[in-house]
Amino acid sequence: MSxxxxxxxxxxxxxxxxxxxxxxSSGGKGSKSGTIHLGATNVLTGSIASVCKxxxxxxxxxxxxxxxxxxxxxxxxxxxxLDDAYDPARAAAxxxxxxxxxxxALVGGCGTANEQAAYTISSKSDVTLIGPYAxxxxxxxxxxxxxxxxxxxxxxxxxxxVQAGLKRLGAGSVLHIAQNSAGVDKENAAxxxxxxxxxxxxxxxxxxxxxxxxxxxxxxxxxxxxxDYILISAGDAQAAQIVLALKSQNVSxxxxxxxxxxxxxxxxxxxxxxxxxxxxxxxxxxxxxADLRSCLDVIAKYGSKADANVHxxxxxxxxxxxxxxxxxVSGSVTSKSLATAxxxxxxxxxxxxxxxxxxxxxxxAGITTGTVYTVQGGKFVAQGTAPYGGQ
Amino acid sequence: xxxxxxxxxxxxxxxxLYGLLGFSIVTLYKASATLSFAQPAVGMFxxxxxxxxxxxxxxxxxxxxxxxxxxxxxxxxxxxLVAMRPNDQAGTANRSFRTLALYSLLLAIxxxxxxxxxxxxxPIPTPKGSVSVGGSAIPLLxxxxxxxxxxxxxAILAFFRWTRYGLLFRAVADDRExxxxxxxxxxRITALVWVAGTVIACIxxxxxxxxxxxxxxTLSNYAIYALAGVFLGGLTAWxxxxxxxxxxxxxxxxxxxxxxxxxxxxxxxxxxxxxxTVRPRGILGDEAVTRV
Lengths: 391, 292
What we know:
The complex is a heterodimer of chains A (391) and B (292). Chain A has 391 residues and is of the alpha/beta class. Chain A is 45% helix and 17% strand. Chain B has 292 residues and is mostly helical. In chain B, strands 1-2 form a two-stranded antiparallel ribbon. In chain B, strand 1 and strand 2 form a beta hairpin. In chain B, helix 2 crosses helix 3. Chains A and B meet through helix 2, helix 7 and helix 8 of A and helix 1, helix 4, strand 2, helix 9 and helix 10 of B.
């Protein structure tokens, strides 16, 4: 046998061994690891269910579409969502059950107090919580193991919209109307600091309660202060009622309303005329445009028409990022390997509605910029981007 | 000082809504000896039904609102037959707690079936604009609320005073068993009272729509103020429901302007506690007479 024939035989053998090894590897991994189990505890019933339910519905629609295309590297995703009714004790029990059922990660979910309770349980088992629609700044600065953001903190959202508004329309006085909640002091501090950085004058904060029946007294107090900007960070129904109460008392900011993302949901459909030409908002995910298409299409096909809104898109976008990270996992999918894959994402474009997403070992916030919107012709119109935190 | 007059005026405006809701509670209590905690949820639920007629059946908003009132009347009969009539000889406490269960049930159903995507805009035509009084803009809607309150209150008082059925209502309210022995069909009377209470609650729900939209939360927030107004004014007095509601509305709105959100509710209940301690039957309630 000539040397060249021996060489050819060795190459052929090595190629055969390589191919067989590759086939064996991919087949073996699928059969060994099987389904990827993900979970969420969310507010599916109760007063804020209308905001929260679409978030896990949107994520579920995305995961169904992934499964319909064969899953991630051949592994189907099983996404189990449990109702906590905005009750931290139930959320903790749900997290315990999901962890017991071998969930690799908790994905999505909504509500600060209940998601915090869920994280307290899941983190003890090193199960990662990813992208809850919740204001949990303490887990991001410094970054906490097993927690990945994707929802900018309310403080960062306020700071971003203050900086964007004052940059766009000039310095002026800022009055903050905020929902009275556990983290409101940090949120106020961030908004005040951003106002002062932008050369504005801080007029303070008027707190509102979700049980308020009449916002006229608030409107009277706000009118007496004559603010150039009114920064609103409250639930979307509450924000709409506040804007209407201000309008009925002929109170309006001299320059603009600055609207926190969480307040945008139903605002245009209920109080749009009061906002026309006088509004700046900074949001993530985006509120309109072609970048929403991938999620809206999937929600239309695999979800419910009722979830084709900003909250459904948020949940779907979180699921897109998780899917992107799952694709990067080498070896078996565990909570640890998923966290490592998430930390390796740099300017990941798999969730167009979010824009580029980056994590690292020192940054678990994920999203650093939002889209600036104004209200024109009864619609939110994109006007570029702004950094979260208003730096 | 400049905010005092507008705060009082806005308090009167919202107090009328508390009074109207309280009015339906007092009506049920007087005629059926049941303290209905369910009225805020009944108002919310029937408002959703009216909105459903508008959004799903594509009826004009006014027609949907009118149909909503009709559906509310039917719901009143259903609520009575299902929740109140069985074992209706059970005591006041039993029946009152049934209404608490009704409250939770209606809220749960509305949250499950109707709430996705709330709040909803229900464009019932109402007068736009406002009138300036003492530096405060009083929405014209407040005058509609006032007119509705005056008409409803007058109509029901006239009904009870000058009609045969009104007399029968009062007989059942005074002593259900004696009324039965006299041949009065007490259950039919009570069913009619539930119809009236449900329709009034629906009217309150529809009056809140222009400012608070259609949402599962709206009337729940009114519940505590309306009940406080009822006890303050007197559980057995129709006019007491309005007097109590107005006091609660004015005090809470002035406190909101001058003190804080948290303090407002506290001040309301300090006043309620003080009045009930000094005058247990409330400001206008009847003296309880017990036969010995």
